[in-house]
Amino acid sequence: MIGARQRFTPLQRLLHWLMAVCILAMLFIGVGMVSTAAPKFLTLIAIHRSLGIAILALALIRLVARLRYGAPALPADLPMPMKLAAHLSHYALYALMIGMPLLGWAMLSAAAYPVVVFGGMRLPAILPQSTSLHTLLWNAHFYLAFAFFGLVLMHVAAALFHALVRRDGVFQTMASVSLSTRDKDPG
Amino acid sequence: MTEPRRSVLGSLIVIAVVIGAGAVAFAYTAGWLSPQRLTPTMLVDSLAPSAGPSLGHRRNHAKGICFTGEFDANGAGSELSKAQVFVRGQYPVLGRFNLATPDAGAPDATVRVRGLGIRIATPDGQEWRSAMIDPPVFAVSTPQGFYELQMALKSKDANAMKDFVASHPEFLPFVDWAMHAPWTDSYAEDRFNSLDSFVFVNDTGEEHVVRWSLLPAAQPVSISPDDLAKRGPDYLEQEIAKRVAGAPQRWTLVVTIANPGDPTADPTKAWPADRRTVAVGTLVVQQIEAERDGPCRDINFDPTVLPTGMRTSDDPFPAARSAAYMKSYDLRTSEAGDYPRTATDANP
């Protein structure tokens, strides 16, 4: 298709890879911190809170970029179930990128913990104190974290499948370092 | 002609290895492959009595009563820390007197260690939370030692405690206190100590390692555990409620400053008695409320919630306590139905 973009915009690619690192770190820090009573617990939890807020901010910017610039079309010959899986998993990833930090923040608010990030910046409570809300949010934050990690693994598997098995250019839409969004010499 | 390429099978193996390695790394980080790692769950579970934990209550220091009042800072603490809580003035306090037992129904005379949890809020939006106890030294040097102590206390092996003491000689000063120190007949007469050390930072950036204590204004009256038992299983709560209703009760907050070389990482080791102390203000307890519907109930007195101007030291306990208190908080708040508030209890 003449004029169709073959890559995400450089801003979208930058945000994707930056957030990929942040989110993987976040998930590992999360499971690591809840399973240790060593002094590093305090360091990990401080990073987890700050990084969570950073991811929330980046995810919101990324959502705006996605709405503004869209995404390159998937290959026409991609089977329908794979197209559907791709679309649904992207909705789920956006929901988790934005939802998990909010769940964490709300969970701390419901427990009346001070929410301190970036070494001293205090965020306001976004919910009143409530044990029932705290339990609900805690469960959501905990179980969705594992779902998030599962989804990330599936995302990586699908990306590698496109790159190594189908070789259909989908991987390059995000992996390319080119500043252009179109191939200079198509075909 | 098809281009020469890795077989599809080879590519699928590469993908499986990448995903598998990711999953294993995650499992390792989560501690699923290292059952020896001391987790907050192990610490919390180690405290449970054989009959099981008191559902809906703190997993340790389960029996307690709420108080509110104020902290009256005299300004002297500003020399040590830039925290607003030390600037001369009055700051609202929420706290909890408690007994160090996992059994919320334990009779007062069966619990040797008493505690005080406190949260002081300042107008800058910061909080200082602390949980103190009345022995002059802690029982063990490390969180691992604390876990081993709980295991030894529960063990059916007759030699378990003997073996524990042999491998934890630091336990003996605490035992000496537990066996010989007099019991008082009121929370108002107890001295409560941070035991753990923290670092205070003043506005010139100067740091001091400190511990702190609340010294009671009330004159201690000794009582034997037998006589305390005769006054009833919940005498301490009834007594403090009556006493505070009669007049506010006061404690002086005293900060002790370590000399270089003092054992800051080990709360079983008291610092020499000649260390400099600074009285920084007065805790005034003005009102007592039952825990069931009280404001302290759903507060976690996490000792690592500190204002700017204070931070944790090389003492390993505050981190372990923070991790374990948080676990306890998550559990008890999910069990709120087992400890209903009076207001939501249809048939009290």
Quick structural overview:
Chain A contains five helices and two strands; from the N terminus they run H-H-H-E-E-H-H.
Question: Could you please describe the fold and organization of this structure?
Answer:
The complex is a heterodimer of chains A (187) and B (348). In chain A, 68% of the residues lie in helices and 3% in strands. Chain A has 187 residues and is mostly helical. Chain A has a single domain, classed as Up-down Bundle (Fumarate Reductase Cytochrome B subunit). The longest helix of chain A is centred in the C-terminal third of the chain and has 36 residues, at 131-166. The radius of gyration of chain A is 19 Å and the shape is elongated. Chain B is of the alpha+beta class and 348 residues long. Chain B folds into 2 domains: 8-35; 62-316, Beta Barrel (Catalase HpII,  Chain A, domain 1), CATH 2.40.180.10. In chain B, 27% of the residues lie in helices and 24% in strands. Chain B is built from 8 helices and 12 strands. The radius of gyration of chain B is 24 Å and the shape is globular. Chain B starts with 7 loop residues before the first helix and ends in a 14-residue tail after the last helix. The mean pLDDT of chain B is 96. The chains are: A mainly alpha (187), B alpha+beta (348). The A-B interface holds A 27-28, 31-32, 34-42, 45, 111-114, 120, 122, 129, 131-132, 134-135, 138, 149, 153, 156-157, 160-161, 164-165 and B 6, 8, 11-12, 14-15, 18-19, 22-23, 25-26, 29-31, 37-43, 125-127, 143, 298-300, 302, 304-305, 308, 312, 316, 318-320, 322-324, 329-330, 333-334, 336.
